[in-house]
Amino acid sequence: MRGHIIFTVAVLLLLALAYQLSKELEILYVSALFAVVLMPVVNQISKVNIRGYRPSRAVAIVILIAVVTLSLTLFFTFGLPPVLRDLRAFTTELPQRIPDIVARLKKIPMVDRIGIDSVAQRAEGAASATAGYLFTSLPTWLTHLFDILTATFLCIYFMLEGEHAYEFFLSLFNRRQRNRLDDTLRKADLKMSKWLLGQGLLMAILGVSSLIVFGILHVRYFLLLGVLMGLFNIIPIAGGVFTILLAAGIAAIDSWPKMFGVILFYVIYLNIENAILTPRIMRSSVNLMGLTVLVALLIGTALAGVVGALVAVPTAALIAVLLEEYAVQKD
Question: Is 31 in contact with 158 (CB distance < 8 Å)?
Answer without folding.
Answer: yes
